[in-house]
Structures are given as structure tokens and as C-alpha cells.
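TL;DR need C-alpha cells for one chain.
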Amino acid sequence: MSKLPNIGTSIFTIMTKMAHEYNAINLSQGFPNFPVDERLTDIVAKLAKEDVHQYTPMAGYPPLLTKVKKLIEKSYQRTVQPETELLITTGATQGIFTTLLALLNTDDEVVILDPSYDSYEAPILLSNAKPIRVALNDDYTPNWEQIENACSSKTKMIIINNPHNPTGKILTYSDFESLEKILDRFPNILLLSDEVYEYITFEEKHISAHTRLQLQNRCIVISSFGKTFHVTGWKVGYVTAPEYLMKEIKKVHQFLVFSVNSLSQAAICEYLNIVDVKEIGPFYQEKRDYFRKLLQPSRFELMPCEGTYFQVVSYAKISDINDVDFCKWLITEHGVAAIPISNFYADGKDLHLIRFCFAKDNATLEAAAKRLCTI
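>> reply
TL;DR here they are.
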């Protein structure tokens, strides 16, 4: 008997497989296709000949934990204790899974804001807890009244994703004030803040849960070196949490992973000496602007993109078929792969919107846009 009877093959897997089958340009799955910073690959080549190939301590390579502490201080003016409040994970998704498995009990409820990343629900269900899916407004701003109404004495956690995948929206100061009012009313609710795109924001800057003093003692922040440094295949992320929560998270982590890839940890540790995370936002903003410019002549309507490396578009002027079928048609007839937004909703809400990933080299973006502009 299945423990996850209603969860099938991921839409990302389906669209990527179709993209390969039809030799389509893959703007579906969220990974860059351009070269990694040569400074980082040079560090890997050097370290590969050094003594960094055995288990690291369970919580992470100690020098890297110290570097993460400094990165959080520099980015958010928050001081954390690397020994007790940080954990290096095998990617952000493992950090999310571990956190939920560690902190949820049977019949706890977790509020998820749709459209949402599909890896939130599975660990909740595996914990015998209950996901409570609350849709964002159609402009992808949070409806705080509905979110508060979804909370109860059974609610153990609220999950936010900021900057938001798939929509590219970022939370405002007003949003955080509304969220904090809800948490004041329900003092037992924890906050899981998924911030894997924290360094990829544009005109409006990212407001991290790290910066909210009122939240720090009840918030778990998820971060991703894979997203930040364009090395998604390395699967290295980190979790920040107050000590009383981190103790429980580490208990689960040690039996899921124990320790993360040692060479990757050592390389990122050294790379943090020379890389400037402030350059990442402008780098992706240039790609976003270029991709949007390329699509201007098309019949697609461009939605706002405030962060992440995803561009949502409406195809309402092109077709009235559902977004899953439209994405399949886009692959088979025009050779471009995208992701339908309805798959991010519990009820499959379809607003005729799809998501493109623009973390690609310019030649790929140009080739894709040329095809999309013929539709």
C-alpha cells in the first residue's frame, strides 16, 4: 500500500523527459546551462588532490559553517552560532524534508501557500500530518485573512517561499507585519522560510526572515548554495534554526545523510573567500531583461518577475486549452519546454499561465524566443 497514493511523477520529470524525446529547448526545469565560475572549478581541481575526501562532521565542514555564519552576518546583520544553529544539507530539498520530518507529529497541520513547490507536501504526509493549502491571490500576493482563517490550535507550521517559485514574487514589509500578527495570535506556530533564491532579486530587494527579530526564535530558514552559485547538481544547501529546533532537525539528518559531500563543502568554503553574492542579482536581472525583451514581439503576456530565475507568462491570447496540454503542445509542435503553473496548486487551478527558466546562456534564450515568437 502506497504511503503517497495521490503523488505521481513530478511535472518537472515529465516535461524534461518530453524535452529530451522531442529535442526541445528545455526552459522547464530550474537549472542553469552556462559554465560555472572558473574560479570555483579551479578550486575543485586543486582540492581534489588534497585530503578532503572523508566524512566531515555530521552538521557540516566546520570552516564552512563559520563562513556561513559570516555570510548571514554580512547579508542580514544577524549573528548565529555555527555549532548549534546551522546545518549543511544535501540540497535545500533535503533540508526541508528533514525539518518537516523532525518537527511534525501525527495530526499536526501545516499551512502551505499555493502555488507551491511540490516537495513541501510529501514529508508532511509521511509525518502523518496534514497539509492545509491556501491559494495566493491571482496577482500572487498573499491573502493574509485567508491564511489566518486557515490557522488553528492544530497548526504547527506555516511555510513561505520568498522569493517565490514559480511566480517570482517577493514578500514586502507589510507582508511580514501581517505574518507576524498571525504568529502573535498563534504563539505555537513555527515558520519555515524557504529562501533558496535569496540572492536573486531585482528592483525590490529580498527581505529575509533572518532580519525579523520577532521571528528568529521560531523560524527555520532554508538556503541553497546550488541555486546561489549555479551548481544545482552539487546538491548543497544549509538550514538555519534556533538551537532547540536544530537539535531535533540534526537527529533526523544524521540518519538520512549523516554528512554532506566533503569536496563540495570544502570548495564552497574556499570560494566564499572570493565571491561576492551581491553580483548575483544583477547577473540574473540582465538575463531576465534580455529574455523579456526577446519575448516582447510574441503573443505571450509577461507577468511581473521580482526575483528567482523564472519568468511566468500568460498564453490566454494564444489558446484556451489547459496549461498542461499547452506545455505538451509547446514541446511537440514548437520545440520549447515550459512548466504549467496549475501543477503547483492543490486543486489544479488553471489561470493559463506557464513558467520559463531564463537561467540559460543567451544563445539558448535567443533560440527559444525565436520559436515562441512564431506562435
